[in-house]
Every structure is written in C-alpha cells, then in structure tokens.
Design goal:
Largest sheet of chain B: 4 strands, mixed
Distance between the termini of chain A: 33 Å
Radius of gyration of chain A: 16 Å
Strand order of the largest sheet of chain B: 2-1-3-4
Strand content of chain A: 5-15%
Oligomer: heterodimer
Distance between the termini of chain B: 36 Å
Order of helices and strands of chain B: EHEHEEHHHHHHH
Largest interface: A-B, 31 and 32 residues
Structural class of chain B: alpha+beta
C-alpha cells in the first residue's frame, strides 16, 4: 500500500475508536499551535487491529500528548495542560510533553520532533483538525507501523536504549506477529 | 529428539508445523537475538550466528535455513507427506521452496536493511531501495502464485512444506494484502493453509490474530 493508502487506513482505525476520538477532541480543545497524540496510543491501535489484542494483561498506558510552540517550556506548563485535559476528559492517564524539552537541537516542527523518536513505528502522531478531519504525522513513514516491524530509528540509532525498550515494553510478547528488525542486536 | 530454536511470529513457525507433521518428538527453545531474556546463550552455543530457526537434529547436527530444514524433514520422513513422493511433483515443490528463499526472503532482507544495498548514505536513497525491494517482493509473489497452482494445496491434497513456507513468508512486508488484491485465489489458498486443522494450532500460537 502507498503511504497515502496507509494514512487513510490509519484514519479509518482512529475514526472507529471512540475513546481515541474523544481524547483527540480534548487535545484540540487546548488550542495549541502544533499538537498531537503520538507513540503508544497510535502504535497500540494499529497493532491491536493487525496483530490481535488482549494477548497480555495491559495496564492502562499513558496517552502521550506532544506539542511544540514558541513559548518557553516549563514543567508547570506541561502539568497544567495535563490537568486541563483531565478536567475535559477524566480517567485518562495523560502525559503531556513539550517537544522543546526533549534533548537535542531545537525542532522546527512537531513532525521533526517525532522523527527523533526511538522507533520508526513509534514516530507517528494523529490529531483532529478544525473540520474534524484526522491528520496524520508520520515523518518516518507508516510501512513499519502497519507491517508490524519494530526498528530502531535510523536517524538516531541508540542500540542500547532500543534493547532496553524492547525488554521493558515486551511488544513481541503482546503482539507475537511483530518482527524486530535489528542488525546490531544480532551480535 | 529434535530441538527447534525459534520465536513467535518468526520463520520457525513453518518448521514447528512441519515437525509436528512428522510425528517426531521435539522441544522448542524460545530464542531471538532481540529478546535478551530468551535463551540466546543456548542458541549461540549451537549456532554462533544466532539465526532462527535453527534445528538441532537428534545426532547433534545444527541445521539452518528454513527451506533446507523443510526439505530435510520432508525427505527424511517421506510418510509425513511434507514433500510429494513422486519425483516430478517433488522437484517442483523443491523449486518452490528455493524460489521463496532465494527471491522472497532475500527481498524482505533488502527491505529490512536497505542501507546494505546502496553506497548512498542519505535517507531518500535508503527509502527508495526499501520501496523497490517491496515492489520486487510483491512481483516475486505474483510470479510464484502464477507458477504454483493449488490442487487444492501446493502440496496436493494436503498442505505440505511448500504451503507452510509460503504461508509464513507471505505474512511479512505487506504481501498478504497485495496478494488479496492481485491474486485472490492464491490468497485464499494461503488462508486455507493458515486454518488447516493440522497446522491451525501452531499458526494461532504464532499469529493469534489474522494478519491482514
């Protein structure tokens, strides 16, 4: 499938997930210039659909909200946004992170920030436009996410961190259809 | 006793299903290079390259390469019907196994590690290699589907070694959706293999949900 077809497939999955739509609406309510829900919530949505859900007792994972704007980052601001989200939509383990706070050179856009996330399948975000259209941010493409390929982000390969995340996240246990593609871990 | 080193969702599924068909006793050791909690040290002792599947035969010989392992099991256990017993159908089945290994597996490997297949170091070039490998992979599967008619299985009345390898390797890199679009009869055959009563339990363990 083309990237465009995969983006549409992702939009369809998001559209069918009432919980995620409600979360996206809440994030839109914040009125941030450049924000999305990314990483685990999106990954889980696609992998559950493709590789089966409920294979491991899932704790309630964080919903990662990431944003970028010109205002200076402060820990209190992220916490205040999380509280605001909790008031809009209680019971969701919101995790809000300004991408200016992540290590490395300052990002020019949210998509650029996503492109530094640790795995290709993680570097995907979605948000709800003003017209309720679902926008997809996938600076590293959607192939790996939909193919169930777990690959260390080639733009910032940190093999040790990757191995640690694999062990901690236990993705291949929860979704046995996944394929880990890693040269370095063979050694 | 055979010992199979493998992991859920990997090529070891085909070998596991074939071993089950032979009726030979075997044990499975869960090992994968990316899972440091798995029995990686034990795998490294029998295969320093840590490839899966690795099958250790009762005499201690370590075999690798899915196609070669399936050929060995089919030839060593003719009653298993993993390979046809008649020379010509058997030759065609062996050709199919080699085709998958040589063309499909290798194209997946190119797509997995595009940086190995170009001297260019930029991201766009790697993406282009990856996309070309995927197109090539899908083209190889279309050729395979046209070459191998199912009657009703590739192995004849019962699914055999070729059906197993095709059903496993076609799960990766967008092949199944592509075949559903372009070779629906062949796609149906693969689904019949997935759900064949003799293999369904093994496949369900490796891929608990349908891979779209």
């Amino acid at each position: 499938m083309t990237d465009r077809a995969l983006a549409q497939a992702l939009r369809n999955l998001v559209r069918e997930d009432a919980g995620l739509i409600a979360q996206l609406r809440a994030v839109r309510e914040l009125g941030l210039a450049d924000a999305c829900i990314g990483a685990g919530a999106v990954r889980r949505l696609v992998w559950d659909a493709r590789f089966g859900q409920g294979l491991a007792a899932g704790t309630s994972p964080d919903v990662d909200v990431v944003y970028l704007d010109d205002q200076p980052w402060t820990p209190t601001r992220d916490a205040a946004l999380a509280r605001r989200l909790s008031s809009l939509l209680p019971g969701v383990p919101w995790e809000v992170v300004h991408q200016a706070h992540v290590p490395g050179p300052r990002c020019g856009s949210l998509a650029e920030a996503l492109s530094r996330w640790p795995e290709t399948a993680t570097a995907v975000g979605v948000r709800l436009g003003a017209d309720d259209g679902i926008e997809v941010l996938a600076p590293l493409g959607l192939d790996d996410l939909f193919d169930g390929v777990v690959r260390c982000n080639p733009r910032c390969p940190d093999v040790e961190a990757f191995a640690t995340r694999l062990a901690a996240k236990r993705w291949t246990t929860r979704w046995p259809g996944l394929r880990v593609v890693s040269d370095a871990l063979r050694g | 006793m055979h010992t199979l080193y493998g992991y859920e969702g990997s090529g070891s599924a085909a070998v596991e299903a074939a071993l089950q068909r032979t009726g030979q006793p075997f044990r499975i050791v869960r090992a994968a290079s990316w899972d440091r909690e798995s029995s990686l040290d034990e795998l490294a002792r029998v295969n320093p390259l840590k490839q899966i599947p690795t099958l250790v035969l009762p005499d201690g010989t370590a075999l690798t390469e899915s196609a070669a392992i399936l050929m060995h099991l089919g030839l060593a256990h003719p009653g298993s019907a993993l390979l046809p017993t008649e020379p010509l159908p058997r030759a065609l089945a062996l050709r199919g196994l080699v085709f998958i290994a040589a063309n499909c597996y290798s194209a997946i490997s190119v797509g997995d590690f595009p940086e190995r297949w170009t001297t260019a170091t930029d991201e766009a070039s790697h993406a282009a290699v990856k996309a070309a490998a995927r197109e090539r992979l899908h083209a190889h599967w279309r050729i395979f589907a046209d070459l191998h008619a199912g009657r009703p299985f590739l192995g004849g009345e019962r699914p055999g070694a070729l059906d197993l390898l095709a059903a496993v390797v076609s799960r990766w890199s967008g092949t199944r959706p592509h075949l559903a679009d372009t070779r629906p009869d062949f796609h149906d055959l693969l689904v019949r293999v997935d759900t064949d009563p003799g293999f369904a339990a093994v496949f369900a363990r490796h891929w608990p949900a349908r891979t779209a």
